[in-house]
């Protein structure tokens, strides 16, 4: 049975890294026999150009009907003054598909340990996951106002939204080292106080899992000083957005980290955690690893397609070990030359 994958290439470097990722997937699938079909849809700024909307109804319908969704990245200065911004499309698809749990793994590839800003022994052992609440909080706040001299954003959380994301964090911890850190600002924010209350209610349902709390400012420091103290971090939308970009830097580059956004049912959406990188778009130097890892995360979690995921990951690691990497990691490879090198490794297996 052919797996249906909805492809949303997006803007700026989006189509560059999506193209690289799909070439690699095709090469690996040819060897393992993984059977899939892709359908490409306009999304973000390119969709605004084509249809006036960042999330056209046909794109949403196609994504909803797929077995999994692959997104590269959207947005950029071209649409800064557009009546609708590409980012509205991103928030809208997350909300429409109820993708409330955004899973962002932080691990240093064995071939990149020397390139991490962390001490080698800490880099080697760094392995944690940020579970970010994705469909509520301040990015979806109501009311909001913007007047000449005053602006207001609101952060609001309901019990049901907090319960399901904290449970998702505990479930993930059960498959890992069984430790959950709730990151909040409960010394100041009412929403954080509610998060703590609910976390304390849920924790006894998972007696094998230990839990602690960390204020977000201290957690930001610990991510770079003591990252090995974390296993699963569960946090709200804004904090998770910021902390995950910070966490990516300890792995060597923001251009390496994937994510999965999960709902209650229906397809998951897989995407790099970074944006459309307008500063390097068109130069052919975007790091394809974040997209490649988004694809392997999809293969593992949506399709249980371990053989294809392993083949791609082993080939990517071998390529990095050979010193072939893009400038964000200190190398001189282009997106294309790195992609070709990974495909050569895949075909060698
Ligand atoms: N999920 C999405 O589609 C997201 C979209 N955005 C949007 O992306 C646009 C640009 O945002 P920025 O703040 O510049 O953040 P960004 O994440 O696009 O870029 C930040 C820095 O990281 C570098 N970088 C990112 N990905 C890279 C890769 N694969 N290889 C090498 N270097 C890479 C960029 O060159 C830049 O220097 C904005 O419109 C923003 O709203 C931002 C985050 C997520
Ligand atoms: C529009 C933003 C919320 C996108 C972003 O920065 C992210 O999801 O990481
Ligand atoms: Mg972000």
From TrEMBL:
Record Pfam families: Iso_dh (PF00180)
Q: Which InterPro entries match?
A: IsoPropMal-DH-like_dom, Isopropylmalate_DH
Catalyzed reactions per annotation: (2R,3S)-3-isopropylmalate + NAD(+) = 4-methyl-2-oxopentanoate + CO2 + NADH
Annotated metabolic or biological route of this protein: Amino-acid biosynthesis; L-leucine biosynthesis; L-leucine from 3-methyl-2-oxobutanoate: step 3/4
User: Quick one: which residues bind Mg(2+)?
Assistant: 217, 241, 245
Q: Which GO terms describe its biological process?
A: L-leucine biosynthetic process
Tell me its EC number(s), please: 1.1.1.85
Keyword entries, A-Z: Amino-acid biosynthesis, Branched-chain amino acid biosynthesis, Cytoplasm, Leucine biosynthesis, Magnesium, Manganese, Metal-binding, NAD, Oxidoreductase
Q: Where is the Isopropylmalate dehydrogenase-like domain?
A: 4-342
Binding residues for substrate: 94, 104, 132, 217
Q: Where are the residues marked Important for catalysis as a site?
A: 139, 185
Superkingdom field: Bacteria
Bound how, and how many: what does the cofactor note say? Binds 1 Mg(2+) or Mn(2+) ion per subunit.
GO molecular function annotation: 3-isopropylmalate dehydrogenase activity; metal ion binding
Family that this chain belongs to: Belongs to the isocitrate and isopropylmalate dehydrogenases family. LeuB type 1 subfamily.
Q: Which NCBIfam families match?
A: leuB
Name the UniProt record assigns to this protein: 3-isopropylmalate dehydrogenase
- Look up and give the organism this protein is from: Loigolactobacillus bifermentans DSM 20003
Q: Which gene encodes it?
A: leuB
């Amino acid at each position: 049975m052919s797996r249906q994958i909805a492809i949303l290439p997006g803007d700026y470097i989006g189509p560059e890294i999506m193209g690289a990722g799909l070439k690699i997937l095709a090469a690996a699938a040819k060897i393992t026999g993984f059977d899939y079909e892709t359908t490409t849809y306009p999304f973000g700024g390119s969709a605004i150009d084509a249809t006036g909307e960042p999330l056209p109804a046909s794109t949403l319908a196609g994504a909803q009907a797929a077995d999994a969704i692959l997104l590269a990245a959207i947005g950029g200065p071209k649409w800064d003054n557009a009546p609708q911004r590409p980012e509205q499309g991103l928030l809208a698809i997350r909300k429409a598909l109820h993708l409330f749990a955004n899973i962002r793994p932080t691990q240093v590839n064995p071939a990149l340990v020397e390139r991490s800003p962390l001490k080698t022994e800490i880099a080697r052992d760094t392995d944690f996951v940020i579970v970010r609440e994705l469909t509520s909080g301040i990015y979806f706040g109501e009311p909001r106002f913007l007047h000449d001299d005053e602006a207001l954003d609101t952060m609001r959380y309901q019990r049901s939204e907090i319960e399901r994301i904290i449970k998702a964090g505990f479930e993930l911890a059960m498959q890992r080292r069984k430790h959950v850190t709730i990151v909040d600002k409960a010394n100041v924010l009412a929403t954080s106080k509610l998060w703590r209350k609910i976390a304390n209610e849920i924790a006894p349902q998972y007696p094998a899992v230990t839990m602690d709390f960390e204020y977000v400012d201290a957690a930001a420091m610990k991510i770079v000083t003591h990252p090995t103290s974390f296993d699963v971090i569960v946090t709200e939308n804004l904090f998770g957005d910021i902390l995950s970009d910070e966490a990516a830097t300890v792995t060597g580059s923001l251009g390496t980290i994937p994510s999965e956004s999960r709902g209650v049912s229906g397809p998951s959406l897989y995407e790099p955690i970074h944006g459309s990188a307008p500063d390097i778009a068109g130069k052919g130097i975007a790091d394809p690893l974040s997209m490649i890892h988004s694809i392997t995360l999809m293969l593992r979690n949506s399709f249980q397609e371990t053989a294809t995921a392993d083949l791609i990951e082993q080939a990517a690691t071998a390529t990095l070990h050979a010193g072939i990497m893009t400038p964000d990691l200190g190398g001189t490879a282009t997106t294309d030359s790195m992609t070709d090198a990974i495909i050569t490794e895949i075909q060698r297996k």
